[in-house]
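Researcher: Structure for this, please.
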Amino acid sequence: MRTFDPIHDDQNWKKLFETHFQNLQSLNAIATSWISGFSKLGMDQSKRPLAEMLTAAIKPYTGYTFIQTSSPIILEQEDWYGMIARYEMPMTNFVRRPEELDYCDEPDIWHDIMGHIPFLAQKDYSDMYQLLARTYLQAHKQQRTDLLKELDFIGGMLIELGLVRESSGLKAFGATFYSSSEVFEAFKPGNQIDFTLSALSSGESYDRHNFQGKYYIFDSLQHLVEIISHVTNKL
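Model: Predicted structure, token format:
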């Protein structure tokens, strides 16, 4: 099992920070909401920030508490969304190794912090994610496997891997793109497809062991709220 290594984790954090920022900037891919959220965190490339620091930075904006775990284990979806619905998010306990700069299929703290937390500092994003969490928990309680598949698509193919239109062009919305070189795959025009509601029942799911090769574009955060609400209204 991986463990927290303060010295090497800080070294790897700095390398990751520099590499992935260059990737995103080279594509002009950084979403406005991510930039705004990141500016609230008060961190830089010098060392891995602690859960307590991130909680203190975000509490005034969206009220989340970040919980440092001692395990790299991925939570079941209902457990993850249960925490989100309580305005909590777990953080795993290691930074990926240098040889995993491009991609790490274990849930490391680089992905947790850079992929999710800047977005969660934004009220409109947080409200969207709360809607998703509550809808998932309700669908799970009602054993609506049909809707759970649709919500898994939203969580994987849009929240982790989606692209959003902004006035200045297409931007990386998916959390995975802020911690992985998969962003280069997503910005190949042949890999991009406009989202339609029919995709929800496609059976597609997020394969964290591989690049997906297909990336959905939606129009705005409000469009994503409408997509989630489409599922919510079926309950």
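Researcher: Any notable elements?
Model: The longest helix spans residues 6-26. The radius of gyration is 17 Å.
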